[in-house]
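Researcher: Here's a chain I'd like modeled. Treat it as a single chain, no partners, no ligands.
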Amino acid sequence: MDLDPSTLNRALPLRDQIYHQIRNLIVIGQMRPGDVINEVSIAEALGVSRTPVREAVKRISDEGLVNILAQTGTYVAPISRADLEEAYIIRRALEMESTRGAAAKFSPAAGELLEDNMAAHRLAISRGRYATAIQSSTTSFTGPSPKSAACR
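Model: Modeled as a single isolated chain. Structure tokens:
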């Protein structure tokens, strides 16, 4: 499990930062369905108390990515085929609509940004850095910078 304490900004709420780190590990598959989530180990790895870790895990549990079982433990939730199919249908519809809207605003600068993103994605995959590839492909066009600068 790759938890990086150096990325924590003590001036910001720890629970939110820890939430993003743990959730990302689940989403990219570094924490797999059925894996135990040990709040004490996570707190020690990050150099924080257990409270912000517990709050982050609770929030992830509210999203259905984690199962908290009383007297048993906390585990990454299994993914059912029905959940995958539903997520695929929803994501496909959202991406198609987003693509329609973006195409109308597509500019040469956005084209260059897309090419750069695709090159970075290919490079990460060729180096076996799958988490980086997933992260770069899901954030490059969702942040404020590309939207405001390249897609006007």
